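Hey, quick one: can you model this chain's 3D structure?
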Amino acid sequence: MKVDDIKRLREETGAGIMDCRRAIEESKGDFEKAKQLLFQRGLAKAEKKAERITKEGLIDAYIHLGGRIGALIEVNCETDFVARTDEFKALVKDLLLQIVAMAPKFISKDDVPEDLLKEERERIKRERGIEDEEKLKEYIEKFYSEKCLLEQPFIKNEAIKVKDLIATVIAKTGENIRVRRFARFELSE
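Sure thing. Here's the predicted structure for all 189 residues.
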């Protein structure tokens, strides 16, 4: 095991030195596998923190070049200390870019109105001729990945979803983080 690998893994994931060392040992020196182990563990940590209250955070905006598209977002965390960290600020900027680029309509699956979901199911059945529930679920998941911010593939790394990006920052900061609300503006829309 190389000390440089532990250091690099710590820099890339924000995990503790001992966690990085254990991950490298468990992955038998495979750096990418170790990184994936830490990522999975980070998600577990994020789930444990999901119920904690988030009263601090940032409101930020992004206007795309040319001034034709912009976004405004409120992202909350537990303390103002975390809200001032580079990791949190970078997350907020990445979320703004995601919103401008991918035009989500909702934050999560839970925010999709039931009548809209029912309408989408009927449209899929009508247009695709699908009656099989399992096949219909695939199309509904695709709908979620297009319309819900947290379900979208992250524009800078499509291998992960936006909710996974947030979970990694939760693991690094040790605090719950929640997208409270956002708005996307496009000229003449």
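One thing worth noting: The helical segments are 3-13, 17-26, 31-49, 80-83, 86-102, 114-128, 133-147, 162-173.
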